[in-house]
């Protein structure tokens, strides 16, 4: 090996010569997209659109969910469409010529709604300070409405593609925004390459239904704008049921992206939001687990990924397969993904150089072992 001169770019170029795994980034704003590109990312493997719904937009979603009045709902959707079209325009422009996988809204419903506990505290404060009775009554009604929608296990509830099935107007709005932004850039002479990803799929009809909605919406926008739009549609594989029935699911997918965060959570039945919970450190201390499975991909989860890739190719021989969970930026996991035969890993922008290096090392080690 040549001496380390500190010239990271040269070392990364060598890694690029050997690696067969592509490296993309997880980004959801144009600044991070540009940063990923500067670090050598070959596209965006995951744009988490829920990150575009913070601040005021959260309020718009709450208005949409809590009102049955068609006009109020439509107005909320129109506002979201305007905002999202701008978001995607910026993302596709920053990644001109490279793929950008946009994932439709994924998080549990409660993340868009005000917290009933916070409302309760607010009501108590208003009552104690002699607040307006009308305002108090309004807040109480809101609290009761949100309380009635509470789920015992939100991460296993109304999230991912289930949101799009229950509220089809949301995926239509998002796909319309993606297609409109792409059409606009095409007319400006750029080369946007959006792809649409459906999250948390477990059965084929979920994907089939949302795929149909997306295809129809893309065709409408293409006709309206007078441009040709070829937008691939794929799915996350992040539930064990999806991995073991990947041959069926692949018949409706152009690509798979393994969401190893949720796949680890649902395979072990460990909550990904409570990794510091007492028992996991205890398991590590007593060596019941060799390492934290949320940081480095666990062999059992890797087996599901391998099964998903193999079955997926039976269902669709042209299927592209990547991974976009946190493990996509972990060197040990990257070795595993290389050996499984994934097409790419996708990780946070700052991990892109490390991922390029790890992918190069994995390729060299695999050759040496031949
Ligand atoms: C995953 O589950 O691995 C994933 C990438 O999706 P998210 O982390 O947004 O749930
Ligand atoms: Mg997930």
UniProtKB/TrEMBL annotation:
Substrate binds at residues 48, 103, 238, 259-262. This is Pyruvate, phosphate dikinase. It comes from Senegalimassilia faecalis. Belongs to the PEP-utilizing enzyme family. Mg(2+) binds at residues 238, 262. The active site is at 324 (proton donor). Residues 5-362 form the PEP-utilising enzyme C-terminal domain.
């Amino acid at each position: 090996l040549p001496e380390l001169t500190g010239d990271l770019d040269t070392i990364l170029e060598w890694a690029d010569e050997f690696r067969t795994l592509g490296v993309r980034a997880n980004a959801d704003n144009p600044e991070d997209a540009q940063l990923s590109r500067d670090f050598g990312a070959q596209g965006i493997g995951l744009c988490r659109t829920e990150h575009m719904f913070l601040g005021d937009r959260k309020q718009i979603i709450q208005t949409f969910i809590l009102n049955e009045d068609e006009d109020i709902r439509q107005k909320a959707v129109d506002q979201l469409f305007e905002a999202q079209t701008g978001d995607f325009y910026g993302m596709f422009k920053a990644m001109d010529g490279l793929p950008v996988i946009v994932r439709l809204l994924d998080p549990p419903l409660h993340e868009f709604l005000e917290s009933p506990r916070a409302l309760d505290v607010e009501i108590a404060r208003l009552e104690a300070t002699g607040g307006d009775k009308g305002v108090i009554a309004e807040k109480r009604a809101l609290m009761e409405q949100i309380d009635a929608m509470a789920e015992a296990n939100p991460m296993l509830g109304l999230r991912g593609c289930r949101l799009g099935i229950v509220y089809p107007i949301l995926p239509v709005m998002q796909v319309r925004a993606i297609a409109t932004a792409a059409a606009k850039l095409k007319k400006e002479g750029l080369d946007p390459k959006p792809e649409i990803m459906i999250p948390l799929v477990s059965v084929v009809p979920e994907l089939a239904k949302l795929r149909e909605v997306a295809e129809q919406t893309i065709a409408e926008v293409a006709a309206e704008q007078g441009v040709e739009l070829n937008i691939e549609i794929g799915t996350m594989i992040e539930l064990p049921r999806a991995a073991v029935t990947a041959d069926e699911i692949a018949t409706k997918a152009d690509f798979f992206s393994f969401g190893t965060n949720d796949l680890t959570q649902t395979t072990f039945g460990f909550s990904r939001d409570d990794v510091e919970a007492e028992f996991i450190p205890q398991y590590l201390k007593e060596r019941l687990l060799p390492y934290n499975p949320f940081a480095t991909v666990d062999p059992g989860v890797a087996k599901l990924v391998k099964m998903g890739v193999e079955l997926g190719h039976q269902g669709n021989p042209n299927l592209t397969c990547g991974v976009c969970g946190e493990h996509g930026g972990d060197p040990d996991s990257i070795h595993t993904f290389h050996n499984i035969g994934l097409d790419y890993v996708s990780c946070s922008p700052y991990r892109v150089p490390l991922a390029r290096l790890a992918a190069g090392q994995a390729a060299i080690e695999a050759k040496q072992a031949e």
